[in-house]
Design a protein that fits this description.
The protein is an alpha/beta fold. 41% of the residues lie in helices and 19% in strands. A 7-stranded mixed β-sheet has the order 3-2-1-4-5-7-6. α4 links the parallel β4 (85-89) and β5 (116-122). It is globular, with a radius of gyration of 17 Å. The chain starts with a helix and ends with a strand. The relative contact order is 0.16. S-adenosylmethionine (SAM) binds next to α2.
Length: 221
């Protein structure tokens, strides 16, 4: 995604980071592009608090926004209505097809003609490709087992963070906003995402990177 940004966004640009979590993607973007600025949107008070405390505002280059991307009016909280590019990583699978349709249309509206949207996410093979689905899930399981040997893992990390007394208020709100530890949403498959993006006003939509179901979709307004 950084490689793509270097080509399609240049050096000085405003980026919108959707479902930013603790800001790890925007942090990389700012490091790689010293003149870029990012507006980061998320709805998880815990992750936003960690991001705001850890990264801060980087002298005005990071602006954190608490908004629910499923709501039609989420964009009302943005500090500006024009971005050169939009990005997202492993976040939009939390949204249903109708919610994505609305979000994609809004993102298209926030970009200029020729502006790019890059989405790196888990995007499933179609339901009629059960062999690919099964193989992909097995690869993911094996990879997760290998990582767990040296890493704390998703569930253990969350248990530890939600017990941290410094985040007690945010943890309480997190439990209300995110009653499930993982997304329960049935997100569209690859073709579904492409169709929704095209309907939303993006004229070209293609995969630019893939490793099984981990993919980066790029769309041009
Ligand atoms: C796996 S994290 C990814 C975070 C970050 N993009 C990254 O790559 O590190 C998924 C993120 O999507 C956010 N998210 C899920 N549903 C959302 C919604 N309706 N509105 C805003 N953010 C949402 C979660 O709060 C979480 O921060």
């Amino acid at each position: 995604m950084l490689e793509a940004l270097a080509v399609v966004a240049g050096k000085r640009f405003d980026v919108l980071d959707l479902g930013c979590g603790t800001g790890s993607l925007s942090e990389r973007i700012l490091r790689r592009f010293p003149q870029a600025r990012s507006v980061l949107v998320d709805h998880d008070p815990v992750l936003l608090a960690i991001g705001r405390t850890g990264l801060g505002e980087q002298r005005g280059r990071l602006t954190w926004v608490d908004a629910d991307l499923r709501r039609p009016d989420w964009f009302m909280s943005l500090p500006r209505r024009r971005f050169h590019v939009a990005v997202s990583t492993t976040a939009l699978h939390w949204l249903t097809a109708p919610e994505l349709a609305r979000l994609y249309a809004r993102v298209a509206h926030l970009l200029p003609h020729g502006g790019w949207f890059l989405d790196g996410d888990h995007i499933a093979f179609p339901a009629d490709s059960s062999h690919f689905r099964q193989a992909s899930r097995s690869v993911a399981r094996h990879r997760a087992a290998r990582i767990r040997l040296s890493d704390v893992g998703w569930d253990a990390w969350w248990r530890a963070v939600l017990r941290d007394p410094r985040l007690a208020a945010e943890a309480e709100l997190h439990r209300i906003r995110y009653p499930h530890a993982h997304s329960e949403t049935v997100s569209p498959d690859l073709e579904g995402h492409i169709r929704l993006l095209r309907r939303a006003g993006f004229c070209e939509v293609h995969l630019i990177w893939a490793r099984w179901e981990n993919r980066v979709l790029a769309a041009v307004r």
